[in-house]
């Protein structure tokens, strides 16, 4: 039976509710040193603000090794009353010490991802550390700028193997929204992952309506995420891109998320836009532009399908 795997257990897809389809409560990467998301109290405040606006679900795309704090997610979920989906997988190679990647490869990436989806995630992001009872509900992978390097191909092959073993959905970070066709060619055409199990992220950062229509024809979910100062040059194109896709019959594939990656970007403690922006600003805009039923589809119905799986 299809279910969404949350940090508190599997739930019926229709129970997920209004969902931020791509965000981070915790994240630590070298490129953002000094702006780590590593404060549980700040994460709790952000979730509370989101819940007050009607938020009921959130997919945290922080993968293995980047400070995801798996052991703390259940209590945050309970306290806020928000379903949390956690991620296994790996980001770009630049975010990890080479020696850690070598150890992970030696142990088998597919085996790591599969075990975190079925047995529980490692508490301290170390393959030698204790394992929590928290199971991941998705796999995060990443391309590089306008291409796929050897690391990306290796991680995506492992993610595909873990998908085939478990049914888990795969979320893809596309650097500045590029190399999306390359990713689809690898995951779907070469590795056999159904496009309905693939979430293509950061498409707002490459606002090419023609390309978006080509991607939508594949049947994959299309995620537009991360309104921020860094992405401000393309933020204003968001509604235009969503409208073009909805008008072409692809409303049922659209997802929206905040992709909060720095402490500065939190609304409750840093200045925003943070988690509340999705429901305070974006949902009303989508409703005005496309109608209330379309907004309900994008924020509630689509995430329920995108993150559901027939778990094996």
Keywords:
12 strands, six-stranded parallel β-sheet, three-stranded antiparallel β-sheet, TIM Barrel, 312 residues, globular, 11 helices, single chain, alpha/beta
How would you describe what is shown here?
The structure is a single chain. With 312 residues, the chain is of the alpha/beta class. It has one domain (15-309): TIM Barrel (Alpha-Beta Barrel). It contains 11 helices and 12 strands. The protein has a 6-stranded parallel β-sheet with strand order 6-7-8-9-10-11. A hairpin with a 2-residue loop joins strand 1 and strand 2. Helix 4 packs parallel to helix 5, helix 7 (209-216) packs across helix 9 (238-247) and helix 9 (238-247) crosses helix 10 (277-290). The radius of gyration is 18 Å and the shape is globular.
């Amino acid at each position: 039976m299809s279910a969404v795997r949350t940090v508190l257990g599997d739930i019926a897809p229709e129970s997920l509710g209004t969902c931020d389809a791509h965000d981070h409560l915790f994240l630590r990467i070298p490129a953002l040193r000094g702006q780590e998301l590593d404060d549980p109290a700040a994460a709790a405040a952000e979730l509370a603000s989101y819940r007050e606006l009607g938020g009921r679900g959130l997919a945290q795309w922080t993968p293995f090794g980047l400070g995801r704090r798996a052991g703390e997610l259940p209590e945050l979920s309970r306290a806020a009353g928000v379903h949390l989906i956690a991620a296994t997988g790996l980001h770009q190679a630049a975010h990890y010490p080479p020696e850690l990647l070598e150890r992970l490869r030696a142990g088998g990436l597919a085996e790591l991802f599969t075990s975190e989806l079925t047995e529980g995630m490692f508490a301290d992001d170390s393959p030698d550390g204790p394992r929590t009872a928290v199971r991941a509900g998705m796999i995060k992978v990443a391309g590089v700028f306008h291409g796929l390097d050897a690391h990306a191909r290796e991680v995506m092959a492992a993610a595909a193997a873990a998908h085939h073993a478990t049914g888990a959905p795969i979320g893809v970070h596309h650097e500045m929204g590029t190399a999306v066709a390359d990713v689809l060619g690898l995951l779907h055409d070469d590795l056999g992952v159904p496009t309905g199990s693939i979430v293509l992220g950061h498409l707002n950062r490459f606002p090419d309506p023609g390309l978006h229509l080509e991607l939508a024809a594949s049947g994959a979910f299309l995620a537009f995420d991360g309104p921020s100062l860094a992405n401000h040059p393309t933020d204003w194109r968001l509604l235009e891109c969503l409208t073009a896709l909805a008008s072409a019959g692809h409303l049922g594939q659209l997802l929206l998320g905040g992709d909060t990656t720095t402490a500065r970007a939190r609304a409750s403690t840093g200045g925003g836009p943070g988690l509340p922006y999705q429901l305070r600003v974006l949902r009303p805009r989508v409703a005005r532009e496309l109608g209330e039923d379309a907004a309900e589809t994008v924020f509630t119905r689509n995430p329920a399908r995108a993150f559901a799986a027939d778990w094996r």
